[in-house]
């Protein structure tokens, strides 16, 4: 039987970088999901004020294994 995974979409935010925003998304997802097997950054965006980036955002698909009973 093939392995099956479920995917949820999470948005991470950071004032530091896109990489940190993705890390935040994975860390927060790991607080409530077991068995995370991968993460795929779907998009990146940022908030800008006065010509400067103030917040980085990443939309991340988090994959995790389904648990069998």
Walkthrough of the structure:
- The chain has a single domain, classed as Dodecin subunit-like, CATH 3.30.1660.10.
- Helices cover 19% and strands 55% of the residues.
- The protein has one helix and three strands.
- Strands 1-3-2 form a three-stranded antiparallel sheet.
- The model has no long low-confidence stretch (mean pLDDT 93).
Can you describe this structure in just a few lines?
The protein has one helix at residues 18-30, and strands at residues 5-14, 36-49, 52-65. The chain is of the alpha+beta class and 69 residues long.
CATH class: Alpha Beta
Radius of gyration: 14 Å
What string, H for helix and E for strand, traces the elements in order?
A: EHEE
In total, the number of strands is 3
What are the SSEs and their pairings?
Elements: E1 5-14, H1 18-30, E2 36-49, E3 52-65
Antiparallel strand pairs: 1-3, 2-3
């Amino acid at each position: 039987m093939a392995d099956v995974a479920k995917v949820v979409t999470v948005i991470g935010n950071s004032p530091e970088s896109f990489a940190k925003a993705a890390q935040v998304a994975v860390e927060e997802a790991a607080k409530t999901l077991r068995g995370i097997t991968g993460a795929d950054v779907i998009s990146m965006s940022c908030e800008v004020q006065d010509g400067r980036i103030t917040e980085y955002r990443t939309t991340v698909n988090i994959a995790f294994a389904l648990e069998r009973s």
